[in-house]
Structures are given as structure tokens and as C-alpha cells.
């Protein structure tokens, strides 16, 4: 419980017994992310519950701190909270249509309410992203070229324009630094085929060659 | 009298062999998909092999749910009820066809030429109903009711009821812990390298199986009640301990007219409770998982008797001490999946009861079984498994008896040896993730101690080679 309460002292210096009971109840319940949170429940309990769910449920695939090791599941640590909220809502509404979203996340997000989605996004945004091992330098160099300057001949703009020079995301655009290369590659292919229907990204990558997708994904994985 | 006891022991062994050969199919259930809203692939490579997520789901008591629920809350905000609005139910069927290399003798024609029909259709071989999922918060189960064509009736099949909870630990650790109340040792296990959920996931029940098998490998399935406690630390280290006591199905106490207490009219009754233990460690990296573990149990059994030849449940017992190691490796690619599952079981038998009544030739025997299977799947659509299996142990010409003069052989051993080994090759096609079409072929190099004339009645090990075709689906 100490860990759960950590950092909440700024809002309320001392938790009331009622809050403690609620936190206890939240932590004691092994439930999916579907748990109904009543309107009168304090934010602290929602936060503690989200942290518990993130580590115990989501953590099985995404890693307890959002630094997954299995490249099928994206790394969420340090990801932009607004981006995460948007993705969770597209899973919840079943509008994000890439295969893994359908197989895994449509179900997992189906009963999430807005408060839990917000709290989960904040949890992951606050986690420290771990670095990935660097791979083939030549591929990384090509990936860096694509990322920073695009591929003019194919009408591909520079990724850095929206995702930031260090790939840590800007505004509503997600962080890509440190993301699994295989995950990034799969998403680029999904944007290209419109399986994951995001108009901006479809436009950006529609002519991007597979080798350049692989290069930029490899480059991104190696970024801190 | 001695003959009667020998016969009883033989009956026991045969019953074990039958239980093993007709071991209920291990299965993944669409109930879980209904409850979680996730596709089969979240928990399985291809059913019933579990992924890491599937193992964690099981360790957490099958309770992860994304179903709407009926709730009740007290005035003090205690949750009194959380009930799924729809129960996670499912149905499974297996339809099979079995062809042996050589027919077995027709018992109604022993002494005269004549063989049993070869080519057995099982329609169904097995039909099961499942409840699989949350029962209440922290409490879930997999409950299987099965009709099998050998028994011709419905009965309790694999059951695993679990209470589980999880805690956050300092340094971002997690600790899952729980209790399992189950009716088959290893049915509660998380890996596919232990007997209950190991390869072959299903076998023909119209073939011939070797005489010898270890006690932990299904011999007591559905006739025990086990309570075990476990921890799963950081989804890596798994430690479990508990005990099993006889909970036999289909027996009646003649005095009370009820299901118990068990008495000397029942055979193979566990003395006290049999301790069970398990430890395993799983390391996950990128797309790989590697598990190594040990497990075992120590079961003391009163031979008991039957209503016609009762034997009191006291005095010497037969003790089976099983110690096993297991190993599992999985590679889960987007298109290619590869797994290796292996286990070696060493059984020490201390046959005080059997030896005292000349139901075994030795006061103690041992038995070793090894299985190693490798599976490949392409896009979860087409796959194949090859397994090598091997059984070896003490020669005991009462436990593994010779053919009686003029007898039919087949389930006898000319040498008194339990040694059997061979290969299983299986190919699978899944048009849908919940529908599997399989062709399985079992090759025997050695059967009940021999390759040629193993039974003393002229039958060769390869005569028991079996082709098994299966349509297996669940919905």
C-alpha cells in the first residue's frame, strides 16, 4: 500500500480512513479493467486501481512499467498520455482495426470507462522508458535519414516533423523512441494497407518501401 | 486367493492403462474468449498450448473478465456480488477414426480364427460441456463434463477451481498467489510439459496402449481431490505444494448406500493424502520463453477390492514416488511458431501390498518415462508435431504378465518388461482457430518389452502402430 499511496500527499496530506478502505478495496480486488468506478469515488482510488490494473493485467503483455520485452506488444513507458487515451478509446469503440487490436485490445478495452482510461494513460506516461539494444549501424543510419529527411522521391515527408527530432513525440503525435522495431514495422504496414485507418499516416507511408520501413523502425528502436 | 489378488492387480494395471489411453482430451475453451473478449491467440499458440498470457490468466484464477456484470454493493461499499450477465459456457466435440496396423483378436473367438473389426469410428469419441471463467471476484474455474463413447455416459472430467489474487511488490514486482482445488494432479499446472496438458493432447480410445504408466500421468485423474497452494513471482518463479486424497467417482458404500465412506469394496484408495509439489522458472525474452521445472508426488495406495472380493483398507500399501523434470521452450513469431516440450518422470514403486500377496514379482520396482515433443505452426493454420516417447523400468513378470496358454496376448509381455518406445507424428490443419483437423500416427519400436512377438502370442510392436484421424472443434 505504501507504494500505491506514494506521491499523493500533494493533493491530500493525510488520507482519511474512508480513502484507505477504498484503496485497500481497490488493491485487493483482482479484477479486469472493466471494474465500474462509481462517480463518487475519489481520484486517488481510481489512480491506485489503474496502477494495479496496469501492473497486474496490462503488465503481463506490456511489462509492469510499460517496457515490454515481447515485440508483439508495444512499449508504453513514457508514451504521450493523450495518444494513449485516444488509442484506448479506439479499442473501446472498436474503430482501430489492425489484427492485434482486434484480437487483444477490443476485448481488453471493451469495459473501460473514461476515468480508468485517463488514469491508465497517466500511469504509462509517467513511466521511464528503457533503452533497447542497438542493432545494425548501416540500417540505423538509413533509418535516421528517412526519419529526419523523409524520402523525397517517394513523397514521404520527414517523420521528425511531427514526432519530434528525438522521436519522443510532440503534441498529439506519439513517442516512437525505443519502440520495438517489429511493432513499428507492423504499424507502418497497417497504415499503408489502411488496416489501421489513420488518414495522415496512410498518406505519409503510402509509397514508403518495405526496406525503408524496416530501416526507420530499426532506427527508432535504438533511440533513447 | 493368490490368483484372485494377481487378477485384481492386473485389473488395476489394466484400468490404469485404459485410463491413460482414454485420458480425457486437454482443451482450450471458447468460454474464456467469451469472457475476456480476446481471441484464442492471446492465451494459446494453437489450442491447448498456452502462451505466457494464458499461463498468467490461469494463475490468476481464470478471473480476468470483460463481461458486463450484475453487481450488488452494501451500504458500506462492500461488493457483495459480481456475476457475469452471460455465463462463459462452451461445447466441445471430437469425432475420430482409428486404424491399427493389425487387428486385435476377437475375444469372442479366442482359440478360433477371428479378429476384431479394424477401423473404429468414434462419433463422438468425446463430447464435453465447459464452464470456464470467473465465478466470483478472485474465484474462477474450469469445469468439464464429458460424454465419452467408451463409458457411454456423462461424467465429471477435468476440474480446476481456483482462488487467486495478486499483489504489487516493491521495485515493480508482482506476486500472484492462490489455491487450486482440482481432480487430476498437474491439471492445475501452467505449462504444457506436464502430463495433464501435455502432448499428445488427445489420443485414440480404440487402440492398444502399453501396460506401464506412471501414477502421476493420469492414473488417478478424476478420482482424487487435491488442494494445492501456489505463488507465481514476477510471472517467472512458480512454486506449488498441496495434497491429494481419493475422491472416487461411481462408487457406493454398501452400508450407507451413499458415495462414501470408501471401504474395502473399492480399489486403489489413497492412504491419507498424497503430497504434491512443483517448482518452475520461466524466462521470457523477445519472442521466446524458456521454462524448466520439477514436480512430483508420493502416493500410497491400498489395493482394496471390489464388492465381490473386498479387502480391508489397512495394512501394507503400494507406494509410488514420482519425481519429474520438465522443460518447455516456445518461439512465438507472427507467422512461425515453434515449441519444444519435454518431461522425464522417474517412479519408484514400493510394492509392500502387492509383493505380500504375490501380485508383484519384486518388493520394489522402478519406471522411467521420457517424452520430448517439437511443434511447428505456420500462421496458426498448418502445423505438425513429432514426439519421441520412451518407457523403461524393472522387469516384473507379474506386473507385466506373460500370455496365459491359449490367451489372446496383446496386453501381455513375454519378457515381463515394461519397456516401450516409439514416435508420434501429427499434422494439423485449422480452418478456423476453434476447429482442428488432425492426422496422428503412432509408431512403436518396442511394446511391453519387445519388438517382435512381444506378447508371447506372436504380435509385434509395430502391429500396434495406429493411424488416428480427428475432427476436433469447440464453440
Task: Give your account of this protein's structure.
The complex is a heterodimer of chains A (224) and B (475). Chain A is mostly helical and 224 residues long. Chain A has eleven helices and no strands. In chain A, 49% of the residues are buried. Chain A has two domains: 124 residues, Cytochrome Bc1 Complex, Chain D, domain 2; 85 residues, Cytochrome c-like domain (Cytochrome Bc1 Complex, Chain D, domain 2, Orthogonal Bundle), CATH 1.10.760.10. Chain A is globular and about 50 Å long. Chain B has 475 residues and is mainly beta. In chain B, the strands form two sheets. A 16-stranded antiparallel β-barrel of chain B has the order 3-4-5-6-7-8-9-11-12-13-14-15-16-17-18-19. In chain B, strands 1-2 form a two-stranded antiparallel sheet. Chain B has a single domain, classed as Beta Barrel (Porin). Helices cover 10% and strands 47% of the residues of chain B. The relative contact order of chain B is 0.14. At the A-B interface, helix 2, helix 3 and helix 5 of A face helix 4, strand 6 and strand 7 of B.
Amino acid at each position: 500500500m505504501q507504494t500505491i499511496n506514494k506521491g499523493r500527499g500533494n493533493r491530500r496530506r493525510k488520507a482519511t480512513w474512508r480513502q484507505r478502505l477504498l484503496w485497500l478495496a481497490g488493491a485487493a480486488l483482482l479484477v479486469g479493467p472493466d471494474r465500474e468506478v462509481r462517480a463518487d469515488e475519489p481520484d486517488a482510488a481510481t489512480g491506485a486501481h489503474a496502477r494495479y490494473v496496469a501492473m497486474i493485467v496490462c503488465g503481463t503483455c506490456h511489462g509492469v512499467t510499460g517496457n515490454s520485452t515481447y515485440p508483439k506488444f508495444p512499449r508504453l513507458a513514457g508514451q504521450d498520455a493523450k495518444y494513449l487515451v485516444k488509442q484506448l478509446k479506439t479499442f473501446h469503440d472498436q474503430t482501430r482495426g489492425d489484427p492485434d487490436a482486434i484480437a487483444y485490445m477490443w476485448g481488453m478495452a471493451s469495459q473501460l470507462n473514461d476515468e480508468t482510461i485517463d488514469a491508465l494513460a497517466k500511469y504509462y506516461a509517467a513511466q521511464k522508458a528503457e533503452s533497447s539494444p542497438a542493432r545494425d549501424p548501416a540500417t540505423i543510419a538509413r533509418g535516421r535519414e528517412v526519419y529526419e529527411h523523409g524520402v523525397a522521391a517517394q513523397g514521404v515527408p520527414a517523420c521528425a516533423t511531427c514526432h519530434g527530432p528525438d522521436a519522443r513525440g510532440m503534441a498529439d503525435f506519439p513517442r516512437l523512441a525505443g519502440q520495438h522495431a517489429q511493432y513499428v514495422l507492423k504499424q507502418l504496414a497497417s497504415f499503408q494497407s489502411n488496416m489501421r485507418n489513420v488518414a495522415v499516416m496512410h498518406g505519409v507511408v503510402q509509397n514508403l518501401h518495405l526496406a525503408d520501413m524496416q530501416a526507420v523502425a530499426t532506427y527508432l528502436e535504438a533511440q533513447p | 486367493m493368490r490368483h484372485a489378488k494377481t487378477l485384481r492387480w492386473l485389473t488395476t494395471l489394466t484400468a490404469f492403462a485404459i485410463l491413460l489411453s482414454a485420458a480425457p482430451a486437454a482443451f482450450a475453451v471458447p468460454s474464456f474468449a467469451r469472457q475476456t473478449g480476446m481471441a484464442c491467440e492471446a492465451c494459446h499458440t494453437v489450442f491447448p498450448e498456452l502462451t505466457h498470457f494464458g499461463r498468467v490468466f490461469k494463475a490468476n484464477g481464470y478471473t480476468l473478465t470483460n463481461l458486463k456484470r450484475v453487481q450488488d454493493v452494501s451500504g458500506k461499499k462492500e461488493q457483495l456480488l459480481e456475476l457475469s450477465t452471460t455465463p462463459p459456457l462452451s461445447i466441445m466435440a471430437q469425432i475420430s477414426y482409428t486404424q491399427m496396423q493389425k487387428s486385435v483378436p476377437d475375444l469372442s473367438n479366442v482359440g478360433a480364427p477371428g479378429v476384431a473389426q479394424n477401423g473404429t469410428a468414434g462419433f463422438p469419441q468425446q463430447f464435453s460441456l465447459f464452464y470456464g471463467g470467473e465465478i466470483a471476484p478472485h474465484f474462477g474455474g474450469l469445469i468439464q463434463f464429458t460424454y465419452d463413447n467408451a463409458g457411454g455416459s456423462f461424467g465429471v472430467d477435468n476440474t480446476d477451481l481456483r482462488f487467486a489474487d495478486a499483489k504489487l511488490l516493491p521495485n515493480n514486482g508482482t506476486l500472484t498467489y492462490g489455491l487450486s482445488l482440482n481432480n487430476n494432479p498437474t491439471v492445475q499446472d501452467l505449462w504444457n510439459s506436464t502430463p495433464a496438458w501435455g502432448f499428445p493432447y488427445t489420443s485414440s480410445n480404440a487402440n492398444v496402449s502399453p501396460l506401464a504408466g506412471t501414477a502421476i500421468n493420469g492414473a488417478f485423474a478424476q478420482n482424487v481431490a487435491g488442494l494445492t497452494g501456489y505463488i507465481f513471482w514476477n510471472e517467472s518463479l512458480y512454486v506449488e505444494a498441496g495434497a491429494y486424497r481419493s475422491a472416487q467417482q461411481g462408487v457406493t458404500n454398501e452400508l450407507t448406500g451413499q458415495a462414501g465412506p470408501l471401504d474395502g469394496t473399492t480399489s486403489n484408495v489413497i492412504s491419507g493424502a498424497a503430497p504434491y509439489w512443483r517448482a518452475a522458472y520461466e524466462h521470457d525474452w523477445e519472442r521466446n520463453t524458456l521454462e524448466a521445472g520439477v514436480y512430483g508426488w508420493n502416493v500410497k495406495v491400498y489395493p482394496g477390492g471390489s464388492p465381490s472380493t473386498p479387502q480391508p483398507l489397512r495394512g501394507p500399501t503400494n507406494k509410488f514416488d514420482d519425481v519429474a523434470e520438465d522443460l518447455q521452450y516456445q518461439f512465438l513469431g507472427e507467422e512461425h511458431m515453434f515449441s519444444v516440450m519435454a518431461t522425464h518422470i522417474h517412479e519408484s514403486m514400493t510394492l509392500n501390498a502387492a509383493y505380500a500377496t504375490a501380485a508383484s514379482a519384486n518388493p520394489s520396482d522402478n519406471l522411467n518415462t521420457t517424452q520430448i515433443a517439437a511443434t511447428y505452426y505456420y500462421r496458426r493454420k498448418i502445423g505438425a508435431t513429432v514426439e519421441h516417447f520412451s518407457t523403461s523400468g524393472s522387469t516384473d513378470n507379474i506386473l507385466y504378465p506373460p500370455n496365459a496358454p491359449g490367451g489372446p496376448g496383446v496386453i501381455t509381455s513375454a519378457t515381463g518388461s515394461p519397456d516401450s518406445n516409439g514416435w508420434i507424428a501429427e499434422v494439423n490443419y485449422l480452418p478456423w482457430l476453434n476447429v482442428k483437423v488432425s492426422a496422428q500416427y503412432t509408431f512403436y519400436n518396442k511394446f511391453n518389452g519387445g519388438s517382435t512377438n512381444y506378447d508371447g502370442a506372436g504380435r509385434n510392436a509395430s502391429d500396434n502402430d495406429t493411424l488416428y484421424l480427428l475432427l476436433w472443434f469447440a464453440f
